[in-house]
């Protein structure tokens, strides 16, 4: 069960990181911000509370 959980989490994080880096590149920055991750999660239909612009 841990192996399956680990693989699902890995795929999820890879997608979040890839999309957050896309937001970062589009903004012509080199550092990923918390808001890049928030926008990525919102785009995926997952809301993360506690962070705002």
UniProtKB/TrEMBL annotation:
UniProt cross-references to Pfam families, sorted A to Z: TAF
Alphabetized UniProt keyword annotations: Chromosome, Citrullination, DNA-binding, Nucleosome core, Nucleus
SUPFAM superfamilies: Histone-fold
Signal peptide span: none
Domain TATA box binding protein associated factor (TAF) histone-like fold: 13-42
Location in the cell: Chromosome; Nucleus
InterPro entries in UniProt: Histone-fold, Histone_H4, TAF_TATA-bd_Histone-like_dom
Listed GO MF terms: DNA binding; protein heterodimerization activity; structural constituent of chromatin
UniProt main location, coarse: nucleus
Function: Core component of nucleosome. Nucleosomes wrap and compact DNA into chromatin, limiting DNA accessibility to the cellular machineries which require DNA as a template. Histones thereby play a central role in transcription regulation, DNA repair, DNA replication and chromosomal stability. DNA accessibility is regulated via a complex set of post-translational modifications of histones, also called histone code, and nucleosome remodeling.
Assembly notes: The nucleosome is a histone octamer containing two molecules each of H2A, H2B, H3 and H4 assembled in one H3-H4 heterotetramer and two H2A-H2B heterodimers. The octamer wraps approximately 147 bp of DNA.
Similarity-based family: Belongs to the histone H4 family.
Protein name: Histone H4
């Amino acid at each position: 069960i841990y192996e399956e959980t680990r693989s699902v989490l890995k795929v999820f994080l890879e997608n979040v990181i890839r999309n957050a880096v896309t937001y970062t590149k589009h903004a012509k920055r080199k550092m990923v911000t918390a808001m890049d991750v928030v926008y990525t999660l919102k785009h995926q239909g997952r809301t993360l509370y506690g962070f705002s612009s």
